[in-house]
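DM from R.C. (forwarded with permission)

"hey, sorry to bug you on a friday — could you get me a structure for this? deadline for the figure draft is monday and I only need the backbone to look sensible"
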Amino acid sequence: MADDNNKDYVLNISDRRPSGKYITPILKGLGYTLKNFFSKPITIKYPTERREVRDRWRGLHRLKVDEQGQLKCVACGLCAKICPPQAITIVPYEEPGGTRYPKEFIIDELRCIFCGFCQEACPKDAIELTKVYDFVDYQRKDFIFDIEKLKTPEKFIFNGK
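My reply, with the result:
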């Protein structure tokens, strides 16, 4: 009776002998490893070498200016209304002649999800998303872009310093 209880817990490993099913996958894996070991690496030496981004890439924002150097933005507020995370703040100003322009135009780049809705909604084509993808800094306040920062986002490209 005591032997019957012990039989339940005895594991017979003689039934599990390998029958050649393990050699082929191991050789395939080693072949793949050796092929990649001797191939040319695809590593980019960032920041001295930069990755080329596609035309549809959406990076930091830029406010466009016209030929006279004036902002194209008329502070209509459509970009701020359509922005899903509400990252855009506009304070409009209207001169006595009826000309409107933004007194303040602020984009919180940390809140922005870079969806491109602001670019699509703008009737004057005054805002665009650039190809700048590597803006880095240490403080949150540096990611809040005002009009001056939005005019030249290319100067914020990371150079490895």
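R.C.: lifesaver. The radius of gyration is 30 Å.
me: no worries. The mean pLDDT is 88.
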